[in-house]
Design a protein that fits this description.
By secondary structure, the chain is of the alpha/beta class. It has 14 helices and 9 strands.
Length: 346
């Protein structure tokens, strides 16, 4: 009799969770389908004026975010709300609803499964907000995916502390904490993938960067070819400063930077060599090189996952590094303006 009553009690709870999850998914699908439909209109537009009008009418995430938040808050104990919290954090982070979902990660949903993507997204939040929240999640969330995500994001925050440290003591402490977090992911969570990407692989790349790609370390040996098949290496330019520019025609942020890089290359050709690592597929690379009138030599890496780009563990485009005449890294992830000072000293 007791077993029958227990089973009867469990059925509505399960149904309720499923109903909340389905309701949230329906709202998100409706919004995302509207965005896709608008994107198709932009692609199909026959004039720049028409494209501009569709770009100006991209559906806002705010109405969807508000509806999702209301559903979650109406059933705060329902595990079906976890998917909504994750969506709000990852896709509506700049909205008030996203900020409210961040609070939920540390309170009503701190023990939830299905929030790993949102937990990992904390790597993009300010450290003062993210680190206490990640500590709480690591202490209280029992699920392997969320534990892995929290450890990884913690490592990213300490990695940034390491790169921006004002003293050698702070730098050493931050490096130790970052390495411990990434090693935990690699050792304990090798089977965890988030949004299709194995987290241990990402942690391994971060460990490689900590050990081999810091300012003062020798730059990795770059060997490759340009679009015409001409082979060349980074070592060919020992004795001069080398500005490495990772870019692609696909990258909208690169569009405003590449003309500046061209100008920089011409202005500083006596003191520095500018070399590009182009991440377009070859057919698109030729168009990009022509569109931006690229005046310096480029390795053709073929993709953002190409061998040269992968070796440098990039997290955004364009990315600019300065390599010294001795082949060591002088500046990482730097704006062009910051390169002028070390060049002026030589």
């Amino acid at each position: 009799m007791t077993r029958i009553l227990t089973a009867c009690l469990l059925i509505p709870l399960s149904a309720s969770a499923q109903t909340l999850a389905e309701s949230i998914r329906a709202l998100i699908d409706e919004y995302e389908n509207s965005v896709r439909a608008n994107t198709q209109k932009i692609i199909a537009a026959t004039s720049e004026e028409e494209r501009a009008s569709f770009r100006a009418s991209v559906p806002s995430a705010a109405p969807c975010a508000e509806k999702v938040l209301r559903l979650i808050e109406a059933s705060p104990d329902d595990p079906g709300g976890a998917a909504g919290v994750a969506w709000l954090v990852t896709q509506a982070g700049g909205l008030p609803q996203g900020a409210r979902a961040l609070e939920m990660l540390g309170t009503t949903h701190v023990r939830s499964a299905g929030i790993a993507a949102a937990v990992k997204a904390l790597e993009h939040q300010p450290s003062a907000l993210a680190l206490p929240l990640l500590k709480t999640l690591r202490e209280r969330n029992p699920h392997p995916e969320e534990q892995a995500a929290a450890a990884y994001a913690t490592g990213v925050h300490h990695f940034r502390r390491y790169e921006n440290a004002a003293s050698e003591e702070e730098r050493a402490a931050a490096k130790e904490e970052a390495m411990a977090a990434f090693q935990e992911v690699a050792a304990r969570h090798a089977g965890v993938s988030i949004q299709g990407f194995p987290l241990a692989d990402q942690a391994g790349r971060m460990l490689f960067e900590l050990g081999n790609l810091s300012v003062g370390d020798p730059a990795p040996a770059i060997e490759g070819a340009d679009l015409d098949g001409g082979a060349f290496t980074l070592k060919d330019h020992l004795g001069k400063h080398v500005v490495l520019v990772f870019w692609g025609g696909w990258c909208h942020a690169c569009h405003g930077v590449m003309p500046q890089v061209n100008e920089f290359s011409r202005e500083h050709q006596e003191k520095a060599v500018v070399l590009g690592i182009n991440t377009d597929i070859p057919a698109e690379a030729r168009k990009a090189m022509s569109d931006f009138q690229i005046s310096f030599r480029n390795w053709s890496d073929g993709a953002t996952s190409g061998p040269i780009t992968s070796m440098f563990n990039l997290r955004g485009f364009p990315t600019i590094h300065l390599i010294g005449p001795d082949g060591r890294i002088v500046l990482k992830n730097t704006p062009l303006a910051a390169i002028r000072e070390p060049l002026a000293r030589h």
